[in-house]
Amino acid sequence: MDPLFSHRPRSDEGAQGQGAPQPRVYRFSVPAPRDVAYSAFTGDLHLWWPSNYTGFGEGTHAFIEDGVIGEESEGGDTQVWGEVLAEEPPSSLELSWTLAWSPTAPMRLLVEFDEADDGAATVVTFTHDGWAAGPEGWEQYEKYSEWPVILGRYVAYFGVSPDAVVTVR
C-alpha cells in the first residue's frame, strides 16, 4: 500500500530537536455560503477526499458521523482516522487526528469557516497542530505535509483552482 502522507526525511531542525513544530495553517475561499461550505466539508467528505490518501484506496467511503472521522471500504471494513472533539456548525470543527499514526499520539485539526462577501463566500482556515513531544512530533510534522493537495480537492469541489489553497504557516 502506498503511504498515506509524505515520508520525507526529517528536517535538520526537527532532527536536532530545536523546539516543537509550529502549527500547519492553510487558508482558502470557496464561493458558497458558510453553511454550505461546512456541510460540504463534513457531509460530502466522500465526494472530495482523494482516495490515495485513505487506507482502503479506490472505492472507499470517507465520512464524519457519530463523532468519528474515518472511512469504510467497499467490503464494509472501517478505519477510524480520528474523533470529533468539538463541532459548532457552521462555524468550526475540531478533530483528533490519527490516520496512519498511533492512536496513542493524536494530533488536532481545527477547521474554521468565516463568512465573506456578504455571505456569498466562505473563508476556511485549516490548522493542523497538537504534535507529540520530541522526535515523534517532528515525524508527524513531516509526514502530514500534503494538506494543500487534499484541501485542493475540497476547493475543486466548488470549482476553484487547487492553487487557491494558501499556506499561512
Number of strands: 8
**Arithmetic mean of pLDDT:** 91
In terms of DSSP E residues, the strand content is: 25-35%
Radius of gyration: 16 Å
Task: Supply the helix-strand structural class.
Answer: alpha+beta
- Biggest sheet layout: 8 strands, antiparallel
- Assembly state: single chain
Note poorly predicted spans: 6-16
- Give the full name of the CATH homologous superfamily: START domain
CATH architecture term: 2-Layer Sandwich
Described by the principal axes of the CA atoms, the overall outline is globular
Assign a percent range to the helix content. Answer: 10-25%
Element-by-element helix/strand order: HEHHEEEEEEHHE
Strand order of the largest sheet: 2-3-4-5-6-7-1-8
Q: Provide the CATH topology.
A: Alpha-D-Glucose-1,6-Bisphosphate, Chain A, domain 4
**Number of domain units:** 1
Total helix count? 5
**Ends: how far apart?**
30 Å
